[in-house]
Amino acid sequence: MISIHHETHYQYSKAPVQSVQRLHLTPSSSDAQQIKHWQIDLEGTDMVFSCRDHHGNIVHIAAQNTQNTDIKITASGKVETKDVLGVAGRHDNFLPLDLYRQETDYCKPGPALRKLEAKMPKSDEDISFLHDLSAYVTDQVTYQKAKTNSQTDAEFAAAQGSGVCQDHVHIFLTLARRKGFAARYVSGYLVTPAELAHQATHAWAEVHVKGLGWVGFDISNGISPDQNYIKLASGFDYRDVQPVAGMRFGDGTEVMTTEVSSQ
Hints:
alpha+beta, five-stranded antiparallel beta sheet
């Protein structure tokens, strides 16, 4: 059983007239994970409604009804996980798989990505190719913090030769799609004895493989997701699964901090 505590804190120099947040902070049960308890607590804002988006993710919308300089959004719960060897299974929403083969703003090839594409591993077997591609991406793009941010696209990270899990996933998705695979971005939590406290969520990829369905690849760690992973949301790229995304109306500045702990 894994316990998660994920807190996002907004601090404003001047209370905004209005602010709205979209939350991808609630996991769904599946073969790999059973949600035993989950809740979202809000301070300084109120829940407006919840629904499932076109990717099948659970989404909540929070809106500020009174002017405040502080907003806290806390997601917490307990999840029972199981190792399914990275196989998430059959397609789980109504979107055509072809949409997951298309370019996005984060996953659009330029000179650096085309150079990587020209030297991609070659294999006639899909799973072997995808594992080799994962290793190829991390070999070419070193894991290094503070060199990119949440707005960095795959082309920039590839040209720079460094990035974090988000960048590895975007590069992997771009190359896999160029090879004809349907591939998607996944956000969630990675819990290991060495990493019980994170400053943010983790990211990995899923690729639709004939005969297996969606199969996960954690590019940064060189493995397929196991019982140490909790999946929050999936989409075409980071923009579709951003844990907390918001907008505000008013003057002043904003600082957002995130802290994730697990046990």
